[in-house]
Each structure stands twice: as structure tokens, then as C-alpha cells.
Amino acid sequence: MKRKCIKVPKKKGEPARRVLLGLDIFDNSLKIGSDETFLYLPLSREPVSEELKDLPLDSEMAEFDFEPIEKKPAPEDLLGFSPAYEVVGDIALLEDENLDAETALKIADALLRTQPNIKSVVKPLTPVIGEFRVREFEVIAGEPRTETIHREYGCRYKIDLSKAYFTPRLSTERSRILSRVKDGDTVVDMFAGVGPYSILLAKSKKPSKVVAIDKNPDAVRYLKENISLNSAKNIEAIEGDAREEAKRFAGTADHVIMNLPHSAYEFLDSAVLLTKSGGIIYYYGITPEDDLFESSIGLIREAAEKAGRKVEVLETRVVRSYAPHQYNICIEAKIL
Rg of the chain over CA atoms, in angstroms? Predict the structure, then answer.
């Protein structure tokens, strides 16, 4: 089957493969192609230009007719149904906190038997709760831990799922924000967590400064460790309340990231304060399907008007389904 790939001289194939694995875009379902001179490394998706900078200089995008690798059993082959889970590093996180113990154990067994990259299977015991946005977990099977290292777009994030919130499902969203940032911009991430937005942006070296704020001391501890792990230089990690820190950085931000979807509206006054004229707020919310954007836009306008400023809505977008009839949305608003 014809697929996009990286064409690389044979002697540089393994370094290139390691880069693609780190970016999580190497397609393991296809056999690596070759001819007398080159290897052809299959891609699971087309990379953005920023992701190719670590490949050997004589690599290039190409197409190749690949052969599929014989399919290994999948969890659904053993279970008779497709289990709902997401993978963070080498931990599989079951999505249904109401699963009975027997079903959860069957799913965990199937995942460990069919997915060699999974070393632990956990089930949430609570939804995201409290001011630090954390959940309680039970380890169902595998190694008894909730700490792992997750790889995404060439970055590594050390995270303990029970101490700081993290989801891989926003990886495309994080990359999209990166595409909006220009050289020399200043970015303030008001609810940075362990740093998936902030570190990706800082590591790109496009912003002159990234200010990463979070109130959760465990999240900030991992954030600082991840800054070091990724050798990110132009980033400041701050443990504190975003409202108070906004006063320190008032009027400095070209981009303000508000990824606190259940309660970001409570911080809109501070986000407006942070944003310089012409700067952009990325507002995330959880909204019902019959009022995806209008009420949230009204709240943004109200906060801007209170500060004597105006709003230009640049884009509205559904990021993902969150619950029945509820969606995680993003509004990009320029503050004038």
C-alpha cells in the first residue's frame, strides 16, 4: 500500500527510526521498505515541519509501496468487544470508572497480553476533582505504579497520573497552538500542569519566553523535572495562583493558554490583564451541544469590556466529545 514515508540512506536508518519513534509517528503495522541505497520508514501521519528537524540531514519525505506486517491479536480479538482506554506512557488508563472488577481484570489481562508497550493497567476511582484537578486510581494489573514517561512530538513528560492531570488526547491541539506562535512571542500558560503545552512551545525555540503557572505543587515539581528532561531553556515554571501571577506579567503575553475547561471562565479577567494589545487568548471550556460557543464568547466579551478592551473572535472549534451531549471546546479570541 502506498504511504507517506521518510527516505533515508541505509547507514542512517536506525537514528532516523529512533527519531520517528520518539515522535510517535513511525507506523509499526508496515514493513520498512528498502532498495540498494535507501530505507523507507513508514509514517502513521504526515509530520509538521518542526518535527523533522532532528532527522539526518539527507532524509526526505517520499512515498513507497509498503507491505503490511502480519497482524497480531488485538484486545478486542480476545474480549469480543473494543475496550475504552487511553495510553499514557506505558500505562493503560481504563476510561469507565464504573467497570465491575471482573470486567476490568479481563480488559487488563487482554491489554497486557496483546500490547507489549503497556506495563500497567489502571482504573479511575473518581472523576477529576478538587482544585488540583486530580483523580484517584486503582492498579488493576501489571506493575503497581501510576508514574510513567509519556512521549509526544519529540518531548518527554514524566507524570504521576494520581498527582497531576494529563491526557494524550490533546496532543493535536497542543501542536495546533504551536503553529500559531511566532518567533519572539511571549506565551503564558495559566494552568500548565506538567508542561505539555509549555514545554512543546519552549522546545520549539519560537517564543522568546514561556511562563508556565500551576497551583498544584506536585504538577510544578514534575513540570520543573520535565523542563530539565527536555533541555528547555526559555521557560519559567511558577507554583502559584494564576490570578496573582497575572498581576506580575500584566500586558506581556502574545498568547494566553487557558486549559482549565471546567472553570477557566473564573479566570477571564486575569487572562485579559495578561494579554497585550493584539494578543490571543485560547479559552477552553466544557459546554452543552445546544450552546457550544455563544455563552462562552459572551463571558470573554464581558471580561474584556470590564477592562475597557474589545474582542475579535478568530476561531471556534470543538476539540473532542467529553460526555453525552457535552463537548470540550476552544475559542481563540484576540484582545484589542
Answer: 21
